Amino acid sequence: MRQRSLTVWALPPALLAAATAIAMPLLASTPSLTPDQSMQPLAQVNAALQAGEADKALALLKSLPSSDAGQGEAHNLECRVRIMLSQWNAASDQCQEAVRLDGQNSEYHMWLGRALGEKADRASFLTAYSLAKRVRAEFEESVRLNPTNAAALADLGEFYRQAPGVVGGGIEKAQGVAAELDKVDPARADELRGQIADQQKDYGTAEREFKQAIAASAHPATQWIALASFYRRRQRWTEMETAVHSAVTAAEHDKHAGVALYDGASILIETNRDPALASKMLEDYLAGSAKTEEAPAFVAHIRLARLQEQLGDAAVANRERAMALALAHDYKPEQDSKH
Questions:
Q1: pLDDT at residue number 334
Q2: Structural contact between residues 74 and 97, judged by C-beta atoms closer than 8 angstroms
Q3: Residue 49 confidence (pLDDT)
Q4: Which residues 6+ apart lie within 8 Å of 231 measured at CB?
Q5: I need a surface site. Which of 52, 140, 255, 317 has the fewest CB within 10 A?
Q6: How many CA atoms lie within 13 A of 188 on its CB side?
């Protein structure tokens, strides 16, 4: 699971008032479910989720009839909203309910594994041990139900790569998942092999695999960011910045590459490099049409606020914080890097 860090920020009264002014039109525009909309309420929830409109998504979910046939999907969507808000216990409960209602859905098992994984990251040793075995079981079941689910395969491969053998992890298992990924998503397979080589301190092979992932990917901006992350870990700063710039260039030609702008900005922020470029990347992400739950818009606004403060524009920083609050009023992140 991707994790980043962000300290909780306190809102002065004036900023709270500004956020309320921004939020009111958003909440007022939350559609009520008229009969002609009854076929698409879950699609509306998903659209709000992808746009980072957590409050709107939860309001829409609350308006759904409890007897609706799509309850499994509703619980899955709420789980994902709760993950976006870093509410791990609530997320796990919702995903568990989705699996209970439809145990044959590969996506539901994948999301339950992710939610449990977040809980495990923050649990005591004994609790984490128990949760880790459940995470593995959910990812394995997701892949069993749909062997072509590339996202679930990638999650399972990452689990095997990172987890000790006592909870079912292992490098050989991860390598086996990479071979399966070759059949459905070669770029993810190359990236997983790069992560494995990096973990084994075979840095030359790791770099080659990350570069091969770029060549194999339909969305190379994302893979450029994976390479930039590798360079960051190796403290190869010039090459890291070059890779981020390459991601920006690739994103200009790929309407699905928004998350690469968000992640690239995160790398620059975490390494205290080029705040002006990081700010522009977040601005472009927020202005574009490729926003995603993987890169919550309200977190992007918070990060942009910090960058604007660093660049000396307090007014814009306050506006960005107000916009974040309008999208997710009770978001209380542990750390910015958790997204």
A1: 58
A2: no
A3: 98
A4: 237, 239, 240, 243
A5: 255
A6: 21
- b/e for 212-222, b at 16 or more Cβ within 10 A? bbbebbebbbb
pTM, two decimal places: 0.86
Structure tokens given for 300: 């992007």
Q: Is 30 exposed, middle or buried (0-12, 13-18, 19+ CB in 10 A)?
A: middle
Six-digit token string for 39: 């076929």
Tell me how far apart the alpha carbons of residues 337 and 339 are, in angstroms, rounded to a whole number: 5
* Count of CB atoms situated within 10 Å of the CB of 73: 20
CB 230 within 8 A of CB 210: yes
Mean pLDDT by 10 residues, the chain (339 residues): 35 41 45 47 96 98 85 97 97 98 98 97 92 97 98 98 96 98 98 98 98 97 98 98 98 93 98 98 96 97 97 97 96 59
Partners of residue 336 on adjacent β-strands: 5
Whats the size of the chain, residue-wise?
339
List alpha helices for the chain, DSSP H: 13-28, 41-50, 54-62, 71-84, 88-101, 106-121, 125-145, 150-162, 171-184, 186-199, 203-216, 220-233, 237-251, 258-270, 275-287, 297-310, 314-327
Q: Which residues contact 138 (CB under 8 A, 6 or more apart)?
A: 99, 109, 110, 112, 113, 116
